[in-house]
Amino acid sequence: MFGRTKKKAAASRTVTLIGKPGCHLCDDARAVIEAVCAETGASWEEKDITRDEELHRAYWEQIPVVLIDGEQHTFWRVDAGRLRRELGA
């Protein structure tokens, strides 16, 4: 297959949740990310926007924000099916 880029396997991908304590949308996003990453084998991490000035400036009005391998995937609401597809599952 010439000209096609092969997608990375889900297990080699990293999902990052950018949120803040006490945010109910962040709690909802965390639950979806935990479930999808458990299914697909992708790793995930969480970053607190209140502890990082750069993240605060970039994403304050969008939290929760979800990145996949450092690239923005979505914000506010996380769709499990869309996240699964993006991870190649």
From TrEMBL:
InterPro entries, alphabetized:
Glutaredoxin-like, Glutaredoxin-like_YDR286C, Thioredoxin-like_sf
Q: Kindly list the residue ranges recorded as spanning the membrane.
A: none
Family annotation (Gene3D superfamilies): Glutaredoxin
The source's domain of life comes to Bacteria
SUPFAM superfamilies found in the cross-reference section: Thioredoxin-like
This protein is called Glutaredoxin
